[in-house]
Amino acid sequence: MVTENEIPQADSFADIKVDSVGDFTFPERNKFDSGFGLSQKTVDYISDVKNDPQWIREFRSKALEVFLQKPLPTHWATGDLCNINFDEFRYYLSDGQKPKRSWDEVPEDVKKTFDRLGIPEAERKFLAGVEAQYDSEAAYSNIKAAVEEQGVIFVNSTEGLHKHPEIFRKWFGKVIPTSDNKFSALNSAVFSGGSFIYVPPGVKVKHPLQAYFRINSEQFGQFERTLIIADEGAEVMYMEGCTAPKFETATLHSAVVELVAMKGAKIQYVTVQNWSSNVFNLVTKRGVAHEDAEIRWIDCNIGSRLTMKYPSVVMKGRRARGEVISIALANSGQHQDTGAKMIHAADETTSNVISKSISIGKGRATYRGQVHIPPHLKGCRNNTQCDALLIHANSRTDTYPAISVRGNRHATQHEASVSQVSADQIFYLMQRGLSEAEAMSLSVNGFINDLVKEFPMEYSVELKRLIDLEMEGSVG
Fold first, then answer.
1. Of 5, 159, 209, 415, which sees the most CB atoms within 10 A?
2. How far apart are CA 282 and CA 399, in angstroms?
3. Rounded mean pLDDT of the chain?
4. Is the entire prediction scored with pTM above 0.85?
């Protein structure tokens, strides 16, 4: 039987364990703790704590059956996945408090965490709304009054489930079914947190909505579930950031993100993740674009032990557009297995994939992509471009593009390149007074500069800072 667990919260920054930016943690103070291991008892515990309706309880139980039946993927990142022991994680941790609408009401240790990560400052400057998740649940959730008055809904997934069931249930689990893969099934069984967004017809949200996902506890799994629906002619940009402290033991992150862009709608989903090197980051992201709709994934992957993430777009309506722009940086002991999937399901649809990866030391970056255009369609177009940069002789990169185009009324192109940082370039920069690490960092930022321009300004500055940190100590 799982008992409630109360731990005193930290009173000052002196109580924080600090090693580097993002790598800090507070003592746990969880009221609800599902305990270690995954079973029907675990799933029931989560449902009880969250007061799930019956259909969600059944959804979770069926998902658990699927998860237990499905084997681990045998053809992707096999060695790393086999190191996951699902019984070593806790699947739900919460202090039992509802998300606060006022920043002043947020618990002090949580507030200090997000203060250090710049969340309240970003909210004041350029966000229409923000949600901050701490372990399993949202600690803070707020939307600007002017945006809310337009009918925009921006709440955590639990609130969406309970307060807006007529919209939530219609789309939940429809874009990514439970049986899609082993990790989507895992998320479906134990999901908690994440965002629910609905933008009414014709409403264009002028400023981004942001969510920030923070793992604080050791031997923990975070399983947020995000669902975004942009109704006809609506537009929205959603940004997410992710961090976790470095522990000696593994941490698991397995999210599911579902996007629905109705006729003429536009959704832009921006991610900058900076996981610590003990995190298994196994994520399923997919969007459905209806007639004349557009879905753009802008994805930056830094950190983690293993990332497996392939944002995808199903272009279901005529003239729908899908795009994935991704940056991945793998340092020693890290494997960034990332890419994109573009499924053309209507005439005159267009997809664009641009991927850049950087491998440092013994880091490994893998691009894995899929483009599918069936024979009965006409007028479809795809562009796929994969570029890799190797920093050291032991750095590794792999590219596995699977482009299936049938019929003769389409236009596709694929380009790939692998390059190494030029010793002459580094020497030249060092003659201008830069250290070797600074010269490397400048070269890497130059390699990805054209993609960084696609990120919102605040995120592009953060991305450059993270790359500079990764380059420190990577030379010699």
1. 209
2. 19
3. 87
4. yes
